[in-house]
Amino acid sequence: MQYDPVKRRLGVVFNRTPFLRKVFYRLLDLLLLRCWHIQRELRAWMAARARANAPIGAIYDAGAGFGQYTYWLSGQLPQATITAIDVKEEQVADCNAFFQRIGRPQVRFEVGDVTRFQRPGAFDLVVCVDVMEHILEDEAALRCYSTSLKPGGMLIISTPSDQGGSDVHKEGEGSFIEEHVRDGYNIDDIQSKALRNGFSKVQARYSYGAPGKVSWKLSMKWPLLMLQASKLFFIVLPFYYLIAYPIAFVLNMADVRMKHRTGTGLIVKAWK
């Protein structure tokens, strides 16, 4: 499946007003289990910085996409400047216009390639969500991230694992997301790549364990397949979620609170 056609359809609906765009971001926060995991880790990072009286000056959103993580971070940390990079010029222009309209001048989107973009020692935090699985030159990206971090700065990554990530469960089976260049990372492999590309400490854990796998199908896979099949499903979608979301909510809560021996996703934290 290709995400871009569905993204364009959603953009037509939710980009009409800033209010609708904010509603869209809130829906993503509720529906996407990766948002639950990432926000939990970011809250822990912010709390640790506060305990250490360490200021947060600059953040880099690597491969920002719709801009939902930049939106969340800029709301949580209005004092921080945020640089967000994406390869799509149309997406960058759209996000800059939105953040200007809602009065967040500390946010700036730029067209750029995460395997080349560097600002040596500039950032306290690098956020990279659903990006690494799209990049062939992943070690080049990791080197750029480490170069751009201040000493002690943290990188956080969310990406599919090789334990069924990208909805691949058998050898030779195709990825559910056609834009992925790899089906998922081995947990030891991604840690090793980070350590040999400028990071001194790495922690990785599985996400999307047993409850998360079911939640993803209910809240994302099946609705996306139906949206791809017909625009008419936009009408049915609210009623579908009235039934499916309470179940997905409980499953998401369980997935975030559990420690998984395996899972289809990975949350990776690395420090310079």
Molecular structure report:
The chain is of the alpha/beta class and 272 residues long. The protein has one domain: Vaccinia Virus protein VP39 (Rossmann fold), CATH 3.40.50. Helix content is 49%, strand content 18%. It contains nine helices and seven strands; from the N terminus they run αααβαβαββαβαβααβ. The protein has helices spanning 3-14, 18-31, 33-51, 68-76, 89-101, 138-148, 187-195, 210-229, 233-257, and strands at residues 58-62, 81-86, 107-111, 123-129, 149-160, 201-207, 265-271. The chain has a seven-stranded mixed β-sheet, sandwiched between helices. α3 packs across α9 (233-257). The protein is globular and about 50 Å long. Mean pLDDT is 90; it is low at 172-176.
Give the SSE layout.
Layout: H1 3-14, H2 18-31, H3 33-51, E1 58-62, H4 68-76, E2 81-86, H5 89-101, E3 107-111, E4 123-129, H6 138-148, E5 149-160, H7 187-195, E6 201-207, H8 210-229, H9 233-257, E7 265-271
Parallel strand pairs: 1-2, 1-4, 2-3, 4-5
Antiparallel strand pairs: 5-7, 6-7
Percent of residues in helices: 40-55%
For the record, the CATH architecture stands as 3-Layer(aba) Sandwich
CATH superfamily: Vaccinia Virus protein VP39
Task: Look up the CATH topology.
Answer: Rossmann fold
Shape: globular
Count helical runs.
9
Question: The biggest beta sheet, please?
Answer: 7 strands, mixed
Q: Find the structural class using helix and strand composition.
A: alpha/beta
Q: Which strand order do you get reading across the main beta sheet?
A: 3-2-1-4-5-7-6
The residue-averaged pLDDT reads 90
**Number of separate strands:** 7
Distance between the termini: 36 Å
What share of the residues does DSSP label as strand, in percent? Answer: 15-25%
Low-confidence stretches: 172-176
Total domains, how many? Answer: 1
Taken in chain order, the helices and strands follow as: HHHEHEHEEHEHEHHE
What integer value in Å does the Rg equal? Answer: 18 Å
